[in-house]
Amino acid sequence: MRSVLLCLLGSFMGLIPTWGHSARPPLVMTGARGGSTCNICHTGTNLNAGGGSLKVEIIGAGNYTPGAKHTLRITLADPTAERWGFQLTAQLSGAANKGGTLNLVNPSETVKEEESGLEYVSHRADGTRPGQRNQVTWDVEWDAPPQGAGNVTFFAAGNAANRNGNEFGDKIYTASAEYAADSGDTQTKSYALPQIAFGGNPGAEGRWTTTLYFTSTASASTAFTIDFFANDSSPMPVPFSGGTATSIPVNLAAGSTTAIELSSSGALTQGWAAVNLPSTVKGFGIFRQDVTERDPSEAVIPLAEDSKQNYVMIWDDSDFDTAVAIANPGDTPVTVNLTVRLANGNQIGTGTINLGPKEKTAFVLRTQLNLPAMQGAKGAVDISVSSGKLSVLGLRFGPTAVTSMPPAER
Questions:
Q1: What pTM was estimated for this model as a whole?
Q2: Could you identify which of 137, 149, 313, 336 might form a hypothetical disulfide with 407, taking C-beta atoms 3.0 to 4.6 angstroms apart as the criterion?
Q3: Phi-psi domain of 28 (left: phi exceeds 0; alpha: psi -120 through 50; beta: other)
């Protein structure tokens, strides 16, 4: 009865404000599960028989990621229409319950309302695009329901109107799209960047900048936090574009990339970083060293899974100095064992280093273990703990450059 009374008041897309619904359509008009559609008012053409089409979809995704933000796109096409309108709702499949939360991307063109526990997004007058031909689109943001909610169905109705000021001759289309939750690997893994450096004097040890890069391969937004620690395990404030903080939150839109640069101003500061990343996010860091009267030098800091216990790392002291950064990402003390071999496999030295929880150390390998036999030679070093966690990075310093030497898991 409510729908009939609304129709008696005027047309869905009429141009006369007193009678029309160009400002917004009545609610519950998407045709969801036997509900009403706009053609109870707009007559003359059968439902979905006007030669056009309506589509609702999640942009860039075949499934939805539970709890994540997605962008929905409604596309209405018709070769004869000159004014446009729509209404959208999201329901859990098999039940007339709200499926997630709808949010407005452009509030000047769309409006959100509720009826009987369900949410509806519809056009406003500015969203009817008078005079536009052939096709229009509207975007709506959607917060997906949590894990275990099941499939979600989007129901939409669209009015491809002829702009004649009344309800006759308009064409009504409906569409629905059902999406299942993403069943892929969305678990997170813990990673460490065993060496972070920023600040310094270009005339002495060099001025250092560290930039962290992350990219998302997900079809929905992703959020994570980078935590920074000093060598003594205390939270380390880092300067970046958002100010200074010991933790930096990162929000990546679907398919996007970000770069977080730690400022090179101030005294030389060293530490390490920890981050939990979903499988859909990849990243690494880059050091940049600026020294007076020398071209800048850069080195990559790979992300290292912090659950490993045994590494082997090649060293090269032929014309260089090999340094090692070792972090203990765990919550228990560890004893790090080092065994150094020459290129021919002969063992030339061993040593141990004790690290407390979240502590990190960095040193020149030859000096730390007092191994003059490394000078002018090449070889490998085994780095391991019998229990706990370990994260390792090698750096080769030469007369004009610095290069990272990533370890391999044994």
A1: 0.59
A2: 313
A3: left
